[in-house]
């Protein structure tokens, strides 16, 4: 064979493979695309396959997407028998070669597939959206949760703190991001651009968000802050657009009144603990006059717990003691208030609600001995302490239905957050002020007369 014919055959072979790959991209099944991507060593051709697979998934209907997840779960899972043999080999001879084989055997092939998908521009956001769909699928098909183990493993690396960028959001931030702040607000709805402006433009308002370099136009989580001179007792006072604005140099307190996770596909990947602490440091740098950092937080699980407790069967064969009677009174008071259109609390109503929330926060735990309330787990885990319980702090319909209008304030004492965090992490300790702890004593409100 002469040199020219050899070169011609070589080029024909290359073009034939390229045509075959294009045919797979255009007409191949999702399984064929996955196989081709995993077998591809070239970066450009691999990226083209990855883009084709992501586009195919995005355009697929729910049945096709479910079939793709089944493919990941079954075809690209680990070989358990191979993993067992590799573990046995390593237990007998612990050298680098056997360790590499063991590590390779216990990593599902779908992890490498997801890594290769993530190489193309824009893929990170698409994979986050893919996981959001997966989480919905898992509700009906729990066997798919093993795929989510891989997503979580990869996302916790890709979205580690070292990659996150803190950006201040103000009224001059690009409109496409401001639109997402409106859409993603999860605690206190932003009903209009005017309402958004009142939260961003005044001298006594701040907003900060974490972004990822691969998702520059997509906030991951954001926090809204009110600069005040005193502890707020209602969220209405914070959200009031015609309030008296506090000059920044006169503010002594920063109140975190809304924290919103933006990406459903990043559930379980924690950013908030980093966000709160970094924002506190940034505000301290900008405004040295700030001395106190606290929250005005919802108690979103309260009424769900109250309703479950009220519905529990009462043992009528045993006469309830005074504490049990008063506890049930407090439960019924919360139920009554949660359904009202307008709220005017008596002194007894307030006492009952404060006692009930203190009990709920301190005594009601999950199987892992952590607080039942998700917001409590978040702030206590960050090293905050439960400082105040505030009846009638949120009398909007959502606040009433979720927590009978009660809000709480967590205190971030920057000198104590590390110790508080350690006590919570190691002992599941609910750190609270003496004011809240006093509420846990035997109920003292006057019994209502029949």
From TrEMBL:
<dbReference type="Pfam" id="PF05292">
    <property type="entry name" value="MCD"/>
</dbReference>
<dbReference type="Pfam" id="PF17408">
    <property type="entry name" value="MCD_N"/>
</dbReference>
<dbReference type="InterPro" id="IPR035372">
    <property type="entry name" value="MCD_N"/>
</dbReference>
<dbReference type="InterPro" id="IPR007956">
    <property type="entry name" value="Malonyl_CoA_deC_C"/>
</dbReference>
<dbReference type="GO" id="GO:0006633">
    <property type="term" value="P:fatty acid biosynthetic process"/>
</dbReference>
<dbReference type="InterPro" id="IPR042303">
    <property type="entry name" value="Malonyl_CoA_deC_C_sf"/>
</dbReference>
<feature type="domain" description="Malonyl-CoA decarboxylase N-terminal">
    <location>
        <begin position="76"/>
        <end position="159"/>
    </location>
</feature>
<dbReference type="InterPro" id="IPR038917">
    <property type="entry name" value="Malonyl_CoA_deC"/>
</dbReference>
<dbReference type="GO" id="GO:0050080">
    <property type="term" value="F:malonyl-CoA decarboxylase activity"/>
</dbReference>
<dbReference type="InterPro" id="IPR038351">
    <property type="entry name" value="MCD_N_sf"/>
</dbReference>
<protein>
    <recommendedName>
        <fullName>Malonyl-CoA decarboxylase</fullName>
    </recommendedName>
</protein>
<feature type="domain" description="Malonyl-CoA decarboxylase C-terminal">
    <location>
        <begin position="162"/>
        <end position="413"/>
    </location>
</feature>
């Amino acid at each position: 064979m002469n040199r020219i014919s050899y070169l011609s055959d070589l080029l024909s072979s290359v073009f034939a493979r390229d045509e075959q790959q294009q045919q797979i991209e255009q007409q191949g099944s999702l399984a064929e695309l996955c196989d081709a991507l995993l077998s591809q060593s070239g970066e450009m051709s691999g990226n083209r396959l990855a883009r084709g697979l992501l586009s195919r998934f995005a355009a697929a209907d729910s049945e096709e997407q479910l079939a793709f997840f089944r493919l990941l779960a079954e075809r690209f899972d680990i070989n358990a028998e191979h993993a067992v043999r590799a573990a046995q080999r390593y237990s007998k001879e612990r050298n680098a070669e056997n360790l590499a084989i063991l590590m390779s055997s216990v990593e599902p092939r779908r992890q490498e597939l997801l890594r290769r998908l993530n190489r193309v521009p824009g893929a990170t956001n698409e994979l986050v959206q893919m996981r959001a769909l997966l989480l919905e699928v898992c509700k009906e098909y729990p066997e798919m949760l093993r795929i989510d183990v891989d997503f979580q493993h990869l996302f916790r690396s890709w979205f580690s703190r070292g990659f996150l960028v803190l950006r201040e959001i103000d009224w001059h931030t690009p409109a496409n991001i401001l639109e997402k702040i409106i859409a993603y607000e999860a605690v206190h709805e932003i009903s209009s651009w005017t309402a958004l402006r009142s939260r961003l433009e005044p001298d006594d308002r701040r907003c900060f968000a974490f972004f990822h370099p691969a998702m520059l136009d997509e906030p991951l989580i954001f926090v809204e802050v009110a600069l005040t001179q005193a502890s707020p007792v209602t969220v209405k006072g914070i959200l009031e657009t015609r309030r008296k604005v506090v000059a920044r140099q006169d503010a002594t307190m920063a109140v975190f009144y809304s924290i919103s996770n933006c990406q459903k596909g990043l559930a379980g990947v924690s950013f908030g603990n980093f966000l709160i602490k970094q924002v506190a440091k940034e505000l301290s740098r900008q405004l040295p006059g700030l001395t106190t950092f606290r929250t005005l937080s919802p108690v979103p699980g309260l009424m769900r717990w109250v309703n479950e407790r009220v519905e529990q069967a009462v043992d009528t064969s045993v006469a309830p003691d005074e504490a049990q009677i008063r506890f049930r009174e407090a439960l019924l008071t919360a139920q009554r208030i949660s359904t009202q259109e307008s709220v005017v609390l008596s002194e007894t109503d307030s006492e009952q609600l404060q006692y009930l929330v203190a009990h709920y926060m301190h005594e009601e735990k999950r199987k892992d001995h952590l607080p039942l309330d998700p917001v409590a787990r978040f702030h206590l885990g960050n090293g905050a302490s439960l400082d105040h319980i505030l009846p009638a702090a949120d009398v909007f319909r959502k606040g009433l239905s979720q927590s009978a209008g009660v809000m709480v304030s967590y205190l971030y004492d920057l000198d104590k957050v590390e110790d508080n965090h350690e006590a919570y992490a190691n002992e599941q300790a609910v750190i609270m002020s003496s004011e809240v702890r006093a509420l846990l004593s035997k109920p003292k409100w006057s019994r209502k007369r029949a």
